[in-house]
Amino acid sequence: QVHLVEFGGGSVRVGGSLRLSCQASGITSNSSYMAWFRQTPQKDREGLAFIDTDGKTASADSVRGRFTISRDNAKNTLYLQMNTLKPEDTGRYYCAAGPGYMTAVQALVFGASAFEYWGQGALVPVTS
Hints:
By secondary structure, the chain is mostly beta strands. Strands 4, 5, 6, 9, 10 and 11 form a six-stranded antiparallel beta sheet that branches. A four-stranded antiparallel beta sheet has the order 1-3-8-7, with no helix packed on it. The mean pLDDT is 95. It has one helix at 104-110, and strands at residues 3-7, 12-13, 18-25, 34-40, 43-51, 57-59, 67-72, 77-82, 91-97, 117-118, 122-124, 126-127. It is built from one helix and twelve strands, in the order βββββββββαβββ. 5% of the residues lie in helices and 47% in strands.
C-alpha cells in the first residue's frame, strides 16, 4: 500500500524560504514520476513541480525560478525548496505519485489526473 506523508509546512514571511519533504512508503521515489501540487480556496489543485524517473524536472510558470523539486532516492523522499515566497503562494501543498512511467513534461501537461497517490497535504501560510 502506498503512503505519502508531507512534512515541513508552517507559516513563513513574504520573501522567505521553506522546504517541504514527502516521505514515501510502498513505492520507491525513483520508480515513479512524482510532483508537488498546491490547493487554495480560490483555485483548483495546481501542479507546481514535477520529476520523472530519469530525474528530469518541469515546473509551472507561477513558480519557475523560485521553487525546486528534488528527491533523495536513498531516503525515498521528495523535496520542494521554495524561495522568495509571495502571499499568493499560501495554500495546502500536496505530494503526489503516479503509476507507471511518464516524463516530467507530460505529467505537467496532464496535471492531477495523471496521479494516483496523494499525501494528506501540508499547510503553508505566507504572511506579510
